[in-house]
Design brief:
single chain; mainly alpha; Cytochrome Bc1 Complex, Chain D, domain 2; globular; binds heme C
């Protein structure tokens, strides 16, 4: 007996990534909502904000979800993360992760 397509549907959904990542959409969102503190290319412009450029996407999305849920507490980032959808978080994380950075040891 062939499995019904209805039964296969959840299997196909599970095979898809949780949210598709759109770097361009993430860049646009970051320019609007994050650049004032984290810089236009993810190098922080505010002295108390961390650099995000080149950071691992998994790390970034985990932190953003933690701010959103309250598991990681920070007054400002809680407000920033609250309205973000899972898709926004995937896009923002993909954008910051895609920025190429170089590290040089001090002379
Ligand atoms: C008003 C300034 C400000 C804005 C705007 C802002 N952030 Fe932040 N962000 C901070 C500060 C300050 C921290 C450090 C918080 C802490 O100590 O947990 C931070 C931390 C983070 C972290 C954790 C980084 C790490 O190394 O753990 C991520 C990810 C992040 N911000 C993403 C974003 C994104 C995405 C946006 C836009 C939707 C945004 N931030 C908007 C100030 C800001």
């Amino acid at each position: 007996m062939r499995p019904s397509p209805l039964l296969l549907f959840p299997v196909l959904l599970a095979a898809l990534p949780a949210a598709a990542q759109d770097i361009a959409a993430g860049r646009l969102k970051a320019q609007q909502a994050c650049a004032v503190c984290h810089g236009p290319l993810g190098l922080a412009s505010a002295p108390d904000a961390p650099h995000l450029a080149g950071q691992n996407a998994l790390y970034l999305s985990t932190q953003l979800k933690a701010y959103r849920s309250g598991a990681r507490r920070h007054e400002v980032m809680a407000v920033m993360a609250k309205p973000l959808s899972d898709e926004d978080i995937a896009n923002l994380s993909a954008w910051y992760a895609s920025i190429k950075i170089e590290a040089h040891a001090p002379n």
